[in-house]
Protein 1
Amino acid sequence: MKKIISLEKPEKLVETALDRAAGRTSGLGDREFLAEKKITTFSNYLLESIDKAIRATPTRESMSAFHFELVKTLESEEKITTIRNHFLTVRRLLAYRRRDAIKTTRASKVGSAKIFRELIGRSASIMKSLGTTIKEFNSLQKNLKELPSIDAKLKTLVLAGYPNVGKTTILKRLTGSKPEIAAYPFTTKKLNVGYFEQKFMKIQVIDTPGLLDRPPRERNSIERKAALALGLLPGIIGFVADCAEQACGLEQQKGLFAALEKEFAKKEFLVFLNKLDISSEEQKKRAKELFAGKNAVEFPEEKAQEIREMLWTILYREEKRKALEEKGWEN
Ligand SMILES: Nc1nc2c(ncn2[C@@H]2O[C@H](COP(=O)(O)OP(=O)(O)OP(=O)(O)O)[C@@H](O)[C@H]2O)c(=O)[nH]1
Ligand SMILES: [Mg+2]
């Protein structure tokens, strides 16, 4: 993610720029040199502040598709572009004022104080136009802090399934450790994130309570965007099925699976048949029949290592194929 900063009000920025310039009034050098130094110190402080804001404003090009999609849950892309463009315009105007003031100083031997005063006046009014934009920028920055710290480059298993089916249990089974809790920007709910390593490769596992645990039509617009973002992570979706039907009936679970499969048509799915230790033979049989042809695997606790290896194979088969191809070997 980008660095998060906050920008002071325009008047304050101008004030600081003036303070810096005041420190440049004495010292060695001829008058013309000192006058120029004052101008550049003043203008550069403002320009650098604006530059920092431009760099900190999220753009589609500067971050992963996943993170940019999440940013869009906070603010519309159009609004963010408007903020950035305003900074860019102000930057251009301030740079023009700086150039003009230096040129005028060099051309006239006298009146450098007047030139500087004019520069202050013009720059201050250009800055003043930024008032609302700075407020909007700061509030976006504050919200950006709340975005979950997920590595969008890592191969990821995103867990889905009705509440209480065992998603968090499976996250712990796979990663062994206590999951890290990451904040969602839009709800009081938290994301659970864990990692495991298989054949020297790190794999990320994400459990998303309150998001992929009910039919897509029940989500609000922010949740829809967040779900869309999750779909942009590289990797697969692991649908957890409660075969003991404690959470809800298997048929209903299959219904949610079908809806998610449709929503994330481009993603590969895996079904984890869970709670087998407390399921009846009939339930196990029905679960297998319902999820036949859907990459369904039984996932009792003792199979964790086997599943980790399987996930590695699925997530890295493309890389493996390419590597073999480069060596000129048949796969
Ligand atoms: N017997 C048995 N219980 C399980 C199994 N997996 C999960 N559970 C239990 O089922 C309950 C729900 O498990 P969680 O892992 O919290 O389920 P979840 O899907 O994360 O639930 P939410 O976070 O509410 O969506 C807990 O009491 C678990 O101990 C299993 O394989 N066998
Ligand atoms: Mg949970």
Protein 2
Amino acid sequence: MNEYIFATKVTTACPCNCAFCSNRKQAHKKRESNGTLAIDLFEEYCKAIVNVGGKYICLSGGEPTLLSNLEEYIKVAKKYDLVVRVNTNGWGVTNERLSSLLDAGLDQIVMSVYSLDKNKMEKIRNREGVFDRAMAALEAIKNAKSTRKFLFIIQTIIMKDNYKEIPDILRVAINVKADIFWPSYLEDAQNNNEANLDEEDILDFTENVLPKMKHCFEKSIENKSIASANIKNCDKLFKPDSLRNDFSMGIYHHGPYDCKLLNRYACLHVNGNLTPCTRYEYNPGEIYFKFTGTDSLKEFFAQCKKPVEEYCKYCPEGEHIGFDFSNNDIDEYSKL
Ligand SMILES: C[S@@+](CC[C@H](N)C(=O)[O-])C[C@H]1O[C@@H](n2cnc3c(N)ncnc32)[C@H](O)[C@@H]1O
Ligand code: SF4
Ligand code: SF4
């Protein structure tokens, strides 16, 4: 497993306006005037990643597919032999664009899919037209999967509006040949009561939704050992029951948390700031570290040793349950 996880926001722009992402967008807006990461700065970041022994970079945002020259960023990262991932809501993923991104060297795609219902997805995303684009993206990725080699992850957030749909999204993930399904817990849930599951929803999820997920694994995954590993994993979601109340309040950790992300993760923002973990997405706090060049990451990790204390309780990092249903051997950075 590669030690480091490096990310960057290549753009802060996004056509959507998901409510649970708005705090991070506000935080970014306050800090960042420029909306696009300069490609020269990106190349310096790639050099610095190689300099500390990193092998992987995730291009996120905002919505990265809005950048007409996203391919150039991918090519730069490949020049440094990095495994390259793009996070997308599917907005700009057509057959032609996908082919061009893969030709540039893209290794991994994470697509977030929050609903399979047009009205619901567009309500969650706060954007008309996003559903048709997302469905076209899924079709394009499915087609490319038969001829090209890349890792495909479908991510969703388990929330009030969609928790009953999770087995359907899982089924689609299997049908479109995704390698991994990540139903994430909601981050910043303590500020998003409307999106977060209450205790009753969590009970409903564990009693009525999880069995449907298990059934889907049983019926749709031919490899019995992969199916049974995933079925076992289902039982970890929202468990133990004694934490149901905490989950409903967006509390994921108790006491000092020995987070595996610290000292192995960094995110470069368009204004040249580096941030060390999920906390800074929503709650920027006072710690800023300016990226200044090839040696920056060494200095950055030296300064980020202390745990991020009280905010950790609201952060699901380390608690997410992933479902892996392929034997794809592409170098995924980790299976945390
Ligand atoms: C900020 S988005 C950027 C990429 C793209 N716009 C998208 O929506 O997939 C990166 C990832 O963060 C996730 N995300 C955003 N807000 C979140 C939240 N409050 N809790 C958990 N995940 C969240 C999205 O689902 C997505 O997988
Ligand atoms: S589409 Fe992605 S970046 Fe845009 S608001 Fe939603 S989660 Fe945030
Ligand atoms: S807030 Fe805490 S748990 Fe979350 S990523 Fe940061 S250090 Fe880890």
